[in-house]
């Protein structure tokens, strides 16, 4: 058993793809036409970090309730965690890519950490070795 995908609700597909692939360095695994449960057009868009088994399904908000969840999918908490081997290199690359960090890097018992925002406004931990 494994977690295959998790969803992040976004406003639009293409800017989200650009953020995850260009700013974070994820791979675009799939971008194909699909249908909603009631037959309307949508896209099935999956990105994931290089070599990772778990992917992120980028889902465009469909309706007011989903639009209201964009950027607040875990009630303002850090809900996503990106572990890297070299924290300083990843941090500098992400800053240079324009990613917004809401905390400065710090060292915790579990490693180096800094909180950043994704394109939707969700909080992520960038994690590296102590």
From TrEMBL:
<keyword id="KW-0560">Oxidoreductase</keyword>
<dbReference type="InterPro" id="IPR037523">
    <property type="entry name" value="VOC_core"/>
</dbReference>
<dbReference type="GO" id="GO:0051213">
    <property type="term" value="F:dioxygenase activity"/>
</dbReference>
<keyword id="KW-0223">Dioxygenase</keyword>
<dbReference type="GO" id="GO:0016829">
    <property type="term" value="F:lyase activity"/>
</dbReference>
<dbReference type="InterPro" id="IPR029068">
    <property type="entry name" value="Glyas_Bleomycin-R_OHBP_Dase"/>
</dbReference>
<keyword id="KW-0456">Lyase</keyword>
<feature type="domain" description="VOC">
    <location>
        <begin position="2"/>
        <end position="129"/>
    </location>
</feature>
<protein>
    <submittedName>
        <fullName>Catechol 2,3-dioxygenase-like lactoylglutathione lyase family enzyme</fullName>
    </submittedName>
</protein>
<dbReference type="Pfam" id="PF00903">
    <property type="entry name" value="Glyoxalase"/>
</dbReference>
<dbReference type="InterPro" id="IPR004360">
    <property type="entry name" value="Glyas_Fos-R_dOase_dom"/>
</dbReference>
